[in-house]
Write a structure and sequence with these properties.
Layout: H1 8-19, H2 32-43, H3 47-64, H4 68-79, H5 85-106, H6 108-124, H7 129-132, H8 141-156, H9 162-171, H10 173-194, H11 199-213, H12 216-228, H13 233-249, H14 260-268
Length: 269
């Protein structure tokens, strides 16, 4: 049964309570012009790959800058005017997998508002059945632990910071187990197995969210991993620029500049 659309006051109340409650006073509102400009830059790398994937990258940028509300507005605008359910699914799955992949890297308080806003869009369009369709099976601790270990090995093969994982194993073995199994096995490797995102795409989404969050050391590691996993230097450079610009726009400027060219040269050395 189709549910009635919320009134303007009801919608404003929902957004204030669930989607934008964490946003600082005076923060800029969602900008369609900004999104159009940024997406145009991403589409220059190829319409075939970036037509829907660009929305996922921009969602990672917004969530990383603690503007999950903009990720849901991005989705709402992306499907506005279309009744093609397959196109809506394609956009939704890209953004949903983005959030499923990046949540451990930027935090639940910033990813959940984006998710709630997106679900609200589905409900207002009476297409929430799309969200009920899973692309993964249930968690299998043994299987996903091994897949997570393999994913970690590929990701960090050329990053050269094994001491991070070794140190965590000494003092935080349960955290390390959860990271290997749930984060890298179920969330990240699962996105690749689902076919919604390719491996190089999940790597770029992780790097994007971390970069936009201002976590400099981790950003350098994951930008380097993105390059090593098949993303071109031009793509990674442009995405890093977009992160820098959106962080500035959001009032959370990145603390240190990021030189993707230098990271690329380190891989070649």
């Amino acid at each position: 049964m189709a549910q009635s659309k919320p009134t303007g006051d009801e919608q404003a109340e929902f957004e204030a309570r669930y989607v934008s409650a964490n946003i600082r006073p005076g923060a800029p509102g969602f900008s369609s012009e900004l999104v159009t400009s940024l997406r145009k830059r991403l589409l220059s790398f190829g319409e075939d790959e970036w037509k829907y994937y660009s929305y996922a990258v921009l969602a990672a940028v917004f969530v990383g800058t603690h503007r999950g509300d903009c990720a849901s507005k991005l989705f709402e605008e992306a499907i506005e005017g279309t009744t093609d359910i397959e196109e809506i699914k394609a956009i939704f799955y890209k953004i949903r997998e983005c959030i499923t992949v990046i949540w451990p890297f930027v935090g639940i308080p910033w990813t959940v508002p984006a998710g709630l806003g997106i679900v609200n869009v589905l409900q207002r369009r009476n297409i929430e059945f799309i969200g009920a369709q899973k692309v993964r099976g249930d968690l299998d601790a043994g299987v996903h632990l091994e897949e997570g270990k393999a994913m970690i090995a590929r990701t960090y093969e050329k990053v050269n910071n094994p001491e991070v994982r070794e140190l965590l194993s000494i003092g935080f073995p349960e955290m390390r187990l959860a990271t290997n199994t749930v984060v890298w096995g179920y969330s990240v490797a699962g996105a690749n197995k689902s076919g919604v995102l390719a491996e190089h795409q999940t790597q770029l989404l992780i790097a994007t969210a971390i970069t936009a969050s201002g976590s400099t050391r981790q950003a350098r590691s994951h930008l380097k991993a993105s390059l090593a996993m098949g993303n071109g230097e031009g793509v990674v450079t442009e995405v890093a620029k977009i992160c820098t610009e959106v962080a500035e726009w959001a009032g959370n400027p990145l603390p240190h500049p990021l030189d993707v060219g230098a990271l690329s040269n380190q891989l070649k050395a």
